[in-house]
């Protein structure tokens, strides 16, 4: 779903939604260019805490998140230092791969934020989609 060019290594980074991983390929690719697996997104599950939502009639709803443990990376963004940030709205999380252009694969993945504000209780479970740094 998500694609991002990395000027640090002249590669295009790809969110492989179905395989729950990040991959990359040379920007000047052809049909013989190999796609490299960078990292797998860890299954951390849905945010634990319920989310309270105020309604216009002054009532309140409580959203309780399911136990979906399917990692679903959907957007990518690089910061000025070459760190790669990945959103996963199924799990309500933002992940980071430090120095994605030079880490040894598989690269370690750090959970930056795991919060109900980034998730949804609906189906399909698309919460916050997209990143901008």
Describe the structure.
This protein is mostly beta strands and 133 residues long. It has one domain (3-118). The protein is built from no helices and ten strands. The chain has strands spanning 3-6, 11-16, 21-26, 36-40, 51-54, 60-63, 75-78, 84-88, 93-97, 110-114. It has a four-stranded antiparallel sheet with strand order 1-2-3-4, with no helix packed on it. It has a four-stranded antiparallel sheet with strand order 7-8-9-10, with no helix packed on it. A hairpin with a 4-residue loop joins β1 (3-6) and β2 (11-16). The radius of gyration is 16 Å and the shape is elongated.
Topology:
Elements: E1 3-6, E2 11-16, E3 21-26, E4 36-40, E5 51-54, E6 60-63, E7 75-78, E8 84-88, E9 93-97, E10 110-114
Antiparallel strand pairs: 1-2, 2-3, 3-4, 5-6, 7-8, 8-9, 9-10
Give a quick set of tags describing it.
133 residues, mainly beta, 36% strand, single chain, four-stranded antiparallel beta sheet
Tally of DSSP β-strands:
10
Order of helices and strands: EEEEEEEEEE
Radius of gyration in whole Å, from Cα?
16 Å
Mean pLDDT score, rounded? 88
Oligomer: single chain
**Order of strands side by side in the largest beta sheet?**
1-2-3-4
Q: Identify the overall geometry.
A: elongated
* DSSP helix fraction: under 10%
Helix count from the secondary structure assignment = 0
| Biggest sheet architecture | 4 strands, antiparallel
Strand content: 35-45%
Unreliable parts:
none
Structural class: mainly beta
- Number of self-contained structural domains: 1
Please give the alpha-carbon distance between the first and last residues. Answer: 18 Å
